[in-house]
Amino acid sequence: MTSASGPPGRDSTPSAAVPLTKEPGPPERDVSGPDPTSGRRDAGHRSHRPWSARRIPAALVASVILVAAVAALIDVIAVRAGRPAAAWRRHLAAELATRSVDDVWMLTGAAVAAAVGVWLIVLALTPGLRRWLPQRSPAECPRLRASLDRDGAAGLLRDAALRVPGVGAARVRVRRHRIRARAEVRFRDPRQVKDDLTAVLDEERDRLALARPARIVVRVRRRTD
Questions:
Q1: Which runs of consecutive H residues, i.e. helices, occur in the chain?
Q2: CA distance 99 to 218
Q3: pTM over 0.70
Q4: Cβ density class 53-72: b for 16+ within 10 Å, e for less
Q5: Helix (H, G, I), strand (E, B), or coil: what is residue 222?
Q6: Any idea of the CA torsion for 196, 197, 201, 204, to the nearest 10 degrees?
Q7: In this structure, what are the phi and psi dihedrals at residue 133, rounded to the nearest 5 degrees?
Q8: Over 80: is that where the pLDDT of 39 sits?
């Protein structure tokens, strides 16, 4: 099940796409109950970041293998039919037979192959989709998985920061383990504004029901113009 709607009640904020995936399980049951985004840190189950399908790397690797296999197969069929081997295959066989292991081209090819192999291993062992923040699954439906877009979360937090009295402008950046907020103070004591802003952002972050709530870092400065 996939949905592209963001958290309700934020008409003035950017839309946050929230993909939902439900694993196979028992027949449907009534899941009405407490809202998983109610802000309680101990509510629901912690979920992991969704894994990327890696469609582009998989398509690139498959295309290279397919082209090489088709070219080799066509040349083998031609040789079996009595025709001479293709020039590229004769040249490749001659180069591999005559070049030494410490040749610069051999070392370069080995380095490129090793780099591609490491890249593929990293892609296979990491989930990807770093722009998505996993949310807690509701206690009534632990198989439900939801993620929140970082830009959407930053927009919600920025709007919450602008509602703090004294804040004239704010900028929020959301990362996996840290939320950085910078605000300009037009009036009031900057220290009081910082305390209020920290409390408001902490409450808004809890409403997002993130599986791993990030630490909030707030910096304020008085507007001089």
A1: 55-80, 87-98, 104-125, 150-162, 190-207
A2: 61
A3: no
A4: eeeeeeeeeeeeeeeeeeee
A5: strand
A6: 60
A7: -110, 120
A8: no
